Amino acid sequence: MKPRSQKSQGKPNGKPNRGPGKVGHNQKPYFKNKNNQKAKGEKPNKPQIRNMKRKEKAAQEAAEREKVRADRDAQVKAYKKKRLEKTKAISKRTQKGQPLMKDRMQLLLKQIEEMKRN
């Protein structure tokens, strides 16, 4: 039996190896365009647009949260001021330790006036 020649060994369909690349003879190789950088005036690509939209949305949400927090802080301050005023009026005492009815009556009068308004 004759030994096979070097040429016939390789791929079974008889095509010789074309080298390390995976490109067939009909296709052009794909190389990234490293030298072809985008100009500054061009519009951004899709991932950049997505990131810009996310940042805008995050900024809007942060502004909304800040507004809500400011409103809540204002409400808490008003409540604390009202509570302090009420506590001072109720806790006043005479020299003998009796509660001052004058301030309590004024507080009750304020409450009645607020109820009439509503």
TrEMBL record:
Any Pfam family matching the protein: rRNA_processing
Low complexity compositional bias, start-end: 10-24
Region (Disordered): 1-80
Amino acid composition bias (Basic and acidic residues), ranges on this chain: 57-75
Domain of life: Eukaryota
Protein name: Thyroid transcription factor 1-associated protein 26
Gene responsible for this protein: LOC117143825
